[in-house]
Amino acid sequence: MEKISLADIAAAGAVGQSKCCKLFARFFFQSPTMYLTQHRLSKSMELLLNTDLPIIEIALSVGFGSASYYTETFRKWMGKTPSEFRKAKFSQD
User: Fold this and answer.
1) Whole-number Å distance between alpha carbons of 39 and 49
2) 12 vs 16: CA distance, rounded Å
3) Recorded GO terms, molecular function (predicted)?
4) What's the pLDDT at 81?
5) CA angle, corner 59, sides to 45 and 42, nearest 5?
6) 32-50 and 82-92 helices cross at what angle (nearest 10)?
7) How confident is the model at residue 4 (pLDDT cuts 50, 70, 90)?
8) Is 21 helix (H, G, I), strand (E, B) or coil?
9) I need a labelling partner for 2 at 20 to 30 A (CA). Which of 33, 41, 43, 86 fits?
10) pTM over 0.85
């Protein structure tokens, strides 16, 4: 939910920012910020499917600063908006 910077991630691992990026590339094949974005999107998909929370609440609860940025990012990664994702699940039931 909180704003997490590269410095925060590196500090949590007791390494410098450069080393942090190298470790993430080596073990996760992506940057720390990309990993964080994917994690937040994954958590948001769980909430979309398992709750009736409004999209704005989901966006903020997983750490996106605004619903519009969340929707833009979600569409970029998933090919549909959070609303479309949620509706698609319920139309399959």
Assistant:
1) 16
2) 10
3) DNA-binding transcription factor activity; sequence-specific DNA binding
4) 96
5) 25
6) 40
7) confident
8) helix
9) 86
10) no
Tell which residue, 1, 31, 3, 27, has the closest CA to residue 17: 31
Give per-residue pLDDT as tens, 28-78: 999 999 999 999 999 999 999 999 999 999 999 999 989 999 999 999 999
pLDDT at 3: 79
> 81 with 59: CB under 8 angstroms?
no
Alpha helices in the chain, H assignment, sequence order: 6-12, 17-28, 32-50, 55-61, 67-78, 82-92
**Alpha carbons 68 and 70: distance in angstroms, whole number:** 5
